[in-house]
UDP-2,4-diacetamido-2,4, 6-trideoxy-beta-L-altropyranose hydrolase (Alteromonas pelagimontana), 341 residues
Amino acid sequence: MRPLVFRVEASTQSGLGHLMRCLAIAQAAEDQSIPSIFLLSEEGKVLARARHDWTYDVISVPIFESQHEEGSWIREILNAVNASALIVDGYSFTSELLVPIRNCETSVVVLDDGSNALTAFADIVINPATREYDELYLQSQASLRLCTGDKYRLLRREFQVLSLPSIEARHGIAVNLGGSDPMSLTLPVLQLLQQTLPEVPVRVVTGAGYRNLPALERFIAQSPLAVQHIHNCQNMADVWSHARVAISAAGGSQFELAVCQTPSLLLMVAENQRGATNLARSQGWCEFFDCTTEFPEPRLSSALTELFFNEHRLKEMSAKASKLHDALGAIRVLEVISEAL
């Protein structure tokens, strides 16, 4: 297959979720000797290259007066590298970006979380969280190929080969509120843990886009909690799979947690996470807490205290997760892209 080109939104403000799921596709492509080229902002380039497993070419996106102008620039790159597909992931992109690419010989792949903003210009739509928008997608364009639902969940290479400890062999609580923690929930969660379960060891992970490192480091230095802090973690599969309980943002991390069979408390920080998170809760392996308006400290504290020492319930939750997902979604996406060429 000819090269893949990715236009991805990545920053401390927007987070790293878009980049991480596109990284999963790029890794699957790399395993098949398919090159990947990323078009990123200067900030996004720094965040991407902070990862030890980053092996992909990056082209910095200049500042344009309009997305239409940027789309024309992207078209030139697609033609220059003879790209097989352009993969677009980000909430700030509008249809104007794709207008100049519409008649290009490159397939356009859009990752959508329900906004349906770009699907009229796409050849393939990816929405791993749900199939509830399938009819809406096909109304915008009947010829669309859909990669929707569980089988297309985009998990990085580290989640494809797992050796999972039993609940009895797991220890402590793992905390990760995303690559940049845009709602600044890491410190409130640690403060809650200090008050609720002060003797339980904690692994807290912050991403390359996390902005409150000095305050976090001061808290850890002064806290009686036994805290291991991992910044810019390169192997979340190891973190999740060894945790007895996880407290996590309810974005793409929830799919990682399900594959790792880790009982979880998911913190919903954006409205577009509600559908997938409600589904995850109904599957029985997690609980979820709405943090879009306020931090639900009393409820979270109560749920954590009740769950952590209830080994029977933890085993039940882990067992329910074991029947749900695999980590082969990115490979299946590549198969659909190949079929569309």
